[in-house]
Specification:
This protein is α+β, with helices and mostly antiparallel strands. Helices cover about 30% and strands about 25% of the residues. The chain has a domain at about 75-245: Oxidoreductase, molybdopterin-binding domain (Sulfite Oxidase, Chain A, domain 2, Alpha-Beta Complex), CATH 3.90.420. It has helices at about 1-45, 55-65, 120-125, 155-160, 185-190, and strands spanning about 45-50, 50, 105-110, 115-120, 130-135, 145-150, 170-175, 180-185, 195-200, 205, 215, 230-235.
Amino acid sequence: MENLKYKEEQLISEKKLRYKTIIAFIIFFVMIIAAIVGWNKLRKQPTTANAPKTIRSVLDYNGDFFSNFISNNHLAKTYPVSAAVKSVRVNGDVGMGNDFDPATWKLQVIRNAGDTLFLTMDDIKALPKTDIVFDFKCIEGWSQVTHWAGVRFSDFAKAYHLNAQTQLKYVGMQTPDKQYYVGIDMPSMMHPQTLLCYEMNGQPLPMDQGYPLRLIIPVKYGIKSIKRIGEIFFSNERPPDYWYERGYDYFSGL
């Protein structure tokens, strides 16, 4: 009698297992089909800035949402100088053309239409110097603890009386050859860790790291840390952005 009861229970358990297995496979294949159909629909959508419209909408929403959390009290983690790597990886060379002449470089700060401030490196180095050692993160998936120095953008703006300009929503920057350009929200630019940087590891920037002046902005991915800044301008409209036009997130925050 006990053996019969055991066999019946075993048969019921086997039936339940087969049933659950069949259901699991059905759900799995339905999800695969749904994913394929969804992906094909997504690919056929019109694009905005080289991203499908739906994905671009999500990216823009995320950027708008996380921009609410930019605060001078939320700082990127910093490290001792001893933790910084000696060999710093180069994150891109767009805008780093060989025809650049450092002797003729001046930083152009467009305050208003027809009102441009031209500054030399001596002008910039006359301002208080700030160092930062942080984990530089690249969208390619790598990161390095690196040591940089320059002037806080907030100090720069104060020294050159850019108070009205910093009330606008965005800062735009581009290289002298106009091949690389970024747009950055003003709260991130005015963050106390954002630097107009002219030194790396205690030495002047190497050419491939943006000599004579680059941006270091720890609250963003490296794509926003434009090298070899030639021009700065201010706007209430989002300035053009090199990687945004290639399908990436405009905000690019960490």
